[in-house]
Input
Amino acid sequence: MNVRRGEKINVIRNTFGLLAALLLLTQARQVEAGWKAGAAKVRITPNGSMWMAGYSARKKPSEGVALELHAKAMAVEDEKGTRLVFVTTDLIGIPRPMREALEKEAEKRFKLPPASLLLNASHTHCGPELRVSPLPEDGSATERQKISAAYVQDLQEKILGIIGQSLDQLAPAKLDYLHARCGFAMNRRRPTQTVPTNSPHSDGPVDHDVPVLRVTDEAGKVRRVVWICVPQHNTIVLFVLRRLCRLRSRIFGSGPRWAGRVIHDGLWR
Output
């Protein structure tokens, strides 16, 4: 079953909504005693030059790295032992075959049901292309196909690795559901007499909500923050900076990666 973008957003929001409802119910029963959380991360920057996803106008592979890419996992477990793992990646997306392979292997290795695995991508336009189709058996695969296939195989193992590590790191924690706002996003479908144009439309519908899940340890120190900001098409930083440092041809996590870096430095430096 194919899932449209709007349905993906609803799935993510419904997951956060369900978790928020559980937290509200649990807070009355001392949430600190019931929840556990664990986290892990891994570098997923390509080790060499390879073709990038996001812009079909590119005529050559990547040329260097402007900002390292990462995959991060956070596992949570309630007092009944029900587990949920969030995985975030600095990628253009998660192809369905990759999702299916990861959920199958995660269930086999960690007894984690597919419904308990949430995979998310920042939709950076400056990350590696992900070719998930099997290579031709007649040996006709191009070097570009081989490099991408090898990257995807390594990527899947790295993601499975941090899923397992986050589950191994489960420890008593307090979870808070918070709510923030991202006010710079704007609708970019301006109505015309025929079809909408790709232009700013200040009167169009827009979603500025940012659900936030905060994890603190038993001493009250913030350990992890998970936020979902869905209204931004992840090309903003690229368009602002590409003339200065030629980001179009360099591996780069774009807006959410910068935001994560700023938040991390602000909380844990």
